[in-house]
Write a structure and sequence with these properties.
Aminopeptidase; 2 domains; 15-stranded mixed β-sheet; 15 strands
C-alpha cells in the first residue's frame, strides 16, 4: 500500500524542497521575493501554510490561506483567501488536494475565520468543491474597446493615503460582500514584486470620490488594459475614473475588468459600453466556517469582488 502523505505546516527548513516542488509544478524557480511579499508581509498577517509530505518524495502538495478583512452583510469580519494550492504532477488524482483543503479549512475555523474565499480556474474548481467549497458566483470579464481620451479630473498617485480608508467605509455601506480596503492593505497589494500598476484618484478636497487601479499587459492578440479595482461614489465619479482609464489604455486592444453576478457596478458599466466575454473561465467560491446557512443573507445586498482581491495579477 502506498504511504499516505503527512499534512503539516510549512517550516523555514522546507525551502529547498519547496523550490524543487515549485519547479516541477510550474517549470520555473520559486520567486523568493514574491513568496515573502504574499506569505509574510501582508498587513492582515502571515499566511497559514500547509504541505503534504510524502515518505521518500518530500513535498507533494501545498495549500495556503491569506488572512483578509471582509465586509460580510453589516459587519467587517476576519476571513481568508485560498492561495498557492498545488499538487505535484506525479501525485495528482490521489486525493492529496482534497486532504490538504479539508485540513486547512479546519485550521482556518480554529483561527477564527468566518469564511474562506477562493478564485479557482476550471482545472482547480473540482478539487476545491471536493474539499467543501461552494460556488458563490461566476466571475465574468466585462470588456470594451478603449474610448478616445478626454480631459478628466483624476490624478495619478504613487501610493494611497488615509483618504482611501475613509472613502471605502463610506462606499461599502450597504454591500453584502466585499474585501475590505484601507491605505495599508492597498499599498501592500500594489507593491507586488514584478507588478506595475497605475493608481488614479478622484478627490474633492480631502475626500475621495473614488479610485481606480489599472494594469497593462500583453495578451495573445495585443496589449490589454485591465482594471483591477474601481470604486466610485456616483455616476459622475465613475465617468471621470473611466475617462482616466481610457487615457491610460491608448494603444491597447481592449479595456476590461472582472465582475461577479451581484456586482453593483454591472448596470452602470453596461450603459457605458462594457459587454461580457463569451465564456466564464473563473469563479468566486466560498466555504463558511459557520455552516452554509451563513451565506443565506448575502442576497440582500450587492457585492464587489475585483481582480485586486486575487493574488496572481
Amino acid at each position: 500500500m502506498e504511504d499516505v502523505p503527512v499534512i503539516r505546516e510549512l517550516t523555514d527548513g522546507d525551502f529547498p524542497a519547496l523550490e524543487r516542488f515549485h519547479r516541477d509544478c510550474y517549470g520555473r524557480p520559486l520567486d523568493r521575493a514574491l513568496f515573502s511579499w504574499l506569505h509574510r508581509q501582508a498587513p492582515t498577517g502571515p499566511t497559514l501554510d500547509l504541505v503534504a509530505d510524502a515518505p521518500g518524495a518530500g513535498i507533494v502538495g501545498t495549500y495556503s490561506l491569506l488572512p483578509l478583512r471582509v465586509r460580510f452583510r453589516d459587519q467587517v469580519v476576519t476571513a481568508s483567501l485560498a492561495v498557492g494550492a498545488a499538487v505535484h504532477p506525479a501525485h495528482r488524482r490521489r486525493g492529496v488536494f482534497t486532504c490538504l483543503g479539508r485540513e486547512i479549512l479546519s485550521r482556518a475555523a480554529a483561527a477564527g475565520h468566518t469564511f474562506t474565499l477562493g478564485k479557482p480556474n476550471a482545472q482547480a474548481l473540482p478539487g476545491h468543491r471536493r474539499a467543501g467549497f461552494r460556488v458563490l458566483s461566476d466571475l465574468v470579464v466585462l470588456r470594451r474597446a478603449p474610448p478616445p481620451p478626454r480631459a478628466h479630473a483624476c490624478r495619478e498617485v504613487g501610493a494611497f493615503d488615509e483618504r482611501l480608508s475613509e472613502a471605502w467605509k463610506r462606499l461599502s455601506e450597504g454591500l453584502s460582500l466585499a474585501v475590505a480596503r484601507d491605505a495599508a492593505w492597498m499599498n501592500w497589494r500594489l507593491e507586488r514584486p514584478g507588478g506595475s500598476y497605475h493608481r488614479l484618484i478622484l478627490a474633492d478636497g480631502q475626500t475621495l470620490r473614488g479610485w481606480l487601479v489599472l494594469k497593462r499587459y500583453d495578451g495573445t492578440k495585443g496589449q490589454i488594459a485591465h482594471i483591477l479595482d474601481l470604486w466610485a461614489e456616483d455616476a459622475g465619479a465613475l465617468d471621470e475614473l473611466l475617462a482616466g482609464a481610457a487615457g491610460l489604455s491608448q494603444g491597447c486592444r481592449e479595456i476590461n475588468l472582472w465582475v461577479c453576478e451581484r456586482d453593483v457596478r454591472r448596470p452602470a458599466l453596461a450603459r457605458r459600453g462594457f459587454t461580457p466575454a463569451d465564456r466564464v473561465r473563473d469563479w468566486l467560491i466560498g466555504f463558511s466556517h459557520q455552516g452554509d446557512a451563513a451565506f443565506s443573507g448575502l442576497d440582500r445586498g450587492g457585492w464587489v469582488f475585483s481582480y485586486l482581491d486575487n493574488d496572481v495579477h
